[in-house]
Automatic annotation (TrEMBL):
GO terms for molecular function: rRNA (uridine-2'-O-)-methyltransferase activity. The active site is at residue 184. SUPFAM superfamilies: S-adenosyl-L-methionine-dependent methyltransferases. The lineage of its organism: Eukaryota, Viridiplantae, Streptophyta, Embryophyta, Tracheophyta. It comes from the Eukaryota. Belongs to the class I-like SAM-binding methyltransferase superfamily. RNA methyltransferase RlmE family. Keywords: Methyltransferase, rRNA processing, S-adenosyl-L-methionine, Transferase. This is rRNA methyltransferase 2, mitochondrial. Pfam families: FtsJ.
Length: 233
């Protein structure tokens, strides 16, 4: 029952509870352990298809009167799920690798976000090294969006430019000071380098493999808490 295509407990629970995918339980566990999203938070969901994390993120905002916003971006057009979502949730169809921070920043009323979730993952080719490399590239782009190229450059002078969107008018990240970042990656030696870069930028950076992750999957989540102030170069 744990094969990639076999219905399992989390799949059945997602259907029973009205979540559009079993992945909802991954974010539910992250929320339970780390409480990253609080009432009134501004949440950016990168790679939001099919919308399960949008549902959990909106639930975590609390009542509509508490405010907050959830913005999902995906290369596919994603319809906001009716169940668990309300008027605070919207989606944008765009390639995040070529979507400028200025345009992302404009999607939040506060021009920044308190939580950034990246559930982006490459289409698995079966070639482990290729899949891992793309996964790290996506993860690096999520970090670049969050903290800004300047902050990354201070930590790692030789980062590949392929993860950075060119022609950025504002090089600052879109994550607020004290904000949180979650990045999904495929386990490999390279992901440790990304973790090494994150640790000085955040108060705490730790790894989590959610219980809802299929046994055949190599995915793991880097949980970065409390973005610290960055000195200008």
């Amino acid at each position: 029952m744990s094969g990639a295509g076999a219905p399992d407990f989390f799949y059945r629970e997602a259907q029973r509870l009205g979540y559009v995918a079993r992945s909802a339980f991954k974010l539910l566990q992250i929320q339970k352990q780390y409480k990253l999203i609080t009432p009134g938070s501004s949440v950016l969901d990168l790679g939001c298809a099919p919308g399960a994390w949008l549902q959990v993120a909106c639930q975590s905002l609390g009542p509509l009167t508490k405010g907050g916003v959830v913005v999902g971006i995906d290369i596919k057009k994603v319809k906001v799920p009716q169940l668990y979502c309300d008027s605070r949730v919207r989606t944008v169809c765009a390639d995040i690798m070529n979507f400028p921070r200025d345009q992302i920043r404009a999607l939040s009323p506060k021009k920044s976000f308190s939580v950034i979730l990246s559930d982006m993952c490459p289409l698995v080719s079966g070639i482990s090294t290729k899949d891992s490399a793309i996964s790290v590239e996506l993860g690096t782009r999520a970090l670049d969006i969050a903290v800004g190229r300047a902050a990354l450059a201070q930590m790692e002078g030789n980062l590949e430019g392929s993860a950075t969107c060119s022609n950025e008018e504002n090089d600052d990240g879109v994550l607020q000071k004290g904000g949180h970042l979650v990045i999904k990656l495929l386990e490999s030696e390279d992901v440790q380098e990304l973790s090494r870069i994150c640790k000085p930028l955040f108060r705490k950076a730790s790894w989590l493999r959610p219980k809802a992750t299929r046994s055949s999957s190599r995915e793991i989540y880097l949980i970065c808490q409390d973005l610290q102030s960055q000195k200008k170069a």
